[in-house]
Design brief:
Length: 224
């Protein structure tokens, strides 16, 4: 059976679920946060070491300002009210992406990272204002500035995921089959599962089904 260390998830479909069920995209984002908590618990149960969640992309700034503000308020409330619980569960929170949010949110993110830094049961990588193309371009610029040889090993040193193993699994909910500028380098050999369900509908049973399927896949990495 394949070992499973890292699951990455594109949590797609909150807005569509909200419009369909509550006539409000924001209601979908609120429901999506409940799913996040369920999946964190399931990840702990399965003894998976890393969970990376695509929460807000560099392209998401194109959304209506009211929706963006709601998302960030939701995140601020989560960090204020739930970070102690994550800490007690020995969960580490790490942000990947560029932290150029409000001073309040930036401060909460820094405090959450600092508080949970030494935790080792599960590392949650929250991709906020993250774009893989920007990450790769930034890494190449650093290589050029330092006049280092361009190689996979050197490039990896300057990725925001430099200390994190590449995902074994990528899950995307919402019945959309694309990567949306997410971990393009890191997903080179990940097993990809596209789910029809919208993110608020996704549950522990769906998650465990994917994990079971992954563990029985023959992974060749280019070999026979």
């Amino acid at each position: 059976m394949n070992p499973l260390n890292h699951v990455a998830i594109i949590m797609d479909g909150n807005g569509r679920w909200g419009l369909k069920n509550k006539n409000s995209r924001n209601a979908g984002h609120k429901a999506g946060l409940i799913t996040v908590e369920k999946i964190i618990k399931a990840t702990l149960k399965n003894n998976i070491r890393y969970l990376t969640l695509y929460a807000f992309s560099t392209e998401n700034w194109k959304r209506p300002k009211k929706e963006i503000n709601f998302l960030f308020n939701l995140l601020e409330n989560f960090l204020t009210n739930r970070i102690d619980e994550l800490h007690k569960q020995n969960i580490k929170l790490q942000i990947i992406g560029v932290k150029n949010f409000s001073s309040k949110l930036n401060s909460l993110l820094r405090l959450a990272e600092k508080k949970t830094y030494k935790n080792g049961k599960l590392q949650i990588n929250l991709a906020l204002n993250y774009g893989s193309k920007f990450e790769l371009m930034s890494a190449f610029k650093i290589l050029k500035k330092k006049k280092e040889k361009i190689s996979e090993k050197n490039l990896r040193k300057y990725l925001q995921t430099k200390d994190i193993p590449d995902p074994d699994i990528l899950i995307r909910t919402g019945n959309t089959k694309r990567l949306s500028n997410f971990l393009l380098w890191q997903l080179a050999y990940s097993e990809i599962f596209f789910e029809r369900k919208l993110w608020p509908e996704f549950n522990e049973k769906d998650y465990n089904k994917i994990i079971k399927k992954f563990k029985n896949i023959k992974r060749n990495y280019g070999n026979i």
